[in-house]
Amino acid sequence: RCNPEIKMVTVLTSISYDGVKDYVKDLTLMAKDHCVGVICSGLEASMVRDVLGPINLIFTPGIRFQTQDRECHQRTCTPQQSLENGASKIIIGVNCLNHMIQSSSSK
After folding, report:
1. Residue 97: DSSP 8-state
2. What is the per-residue pLDDT for 98?
3. I want to staple 60 with a disulfide (CB 3.0 to 4.6 A). Which of 70, 71, 81, 82 is the partner?
4. Nearest 5°: phi and psi at 7?
5. How many other C-beta atoms lie within 10 A of the C-beta of residue 17?
6. pLDDT at 40
7. DSSP 1
8. Is the pLDDT reported for residue 3 higher than 60?
9. How far, in Å, CA of 40 to CA of 42, rounded?
10. Mean pLDDT lowest for which of 15-24, 32-41, 55-64, 94-103?
């Protein structure tokens, strides 16, 4: 079983272009060869999981709630979508935390 101390960033979630998924797949194959975890968009987590199998860890940044502005991120997912797509862990930034605080205080 891989228990990687190292995680490979594929493509930042602020970047989007034709062919990004092919590039992410190539980098994922490299990560698998070196038994390291992968940091990728939740949109690619399913494809990354197919390549890595159940062992390697997948971390997904670019987490946004449906009611939240995407800001600089181009390839975003909700926490639930990301986990359903195969992420092991999600990375929540300060903007998501602020959104959760504002949502709970308005109730």
Report:
1. H
2. 72
3. 82
4. -120, 135
5. 8
6. 93
7. -
8. no
9. 6
10. 94-103
Other CB atoms within a 10 A radius of the CB of residue 44 amount to 27
| CA–CA dist 43, 106 (Å, integer) | 30
* Cβ-contact 49, 24 below 8 angstroms: no
Check if the beta carbon of residue 81 is closer than 8 Å to that of residue 42.
yes
3: left (phi over 0), alpha (psi -120 to 50) or beta: beta
Tokens describing residue 64: 């946004």
Complete DSSP assignment for 53-83: -SSS-EEE--B--TTS--TT-SS-B-HHHHH
pTM: 0.78
Identity at 31, one-letter amino acid code = A
Joined together, the tokens standing for residue 47 give 């494809």
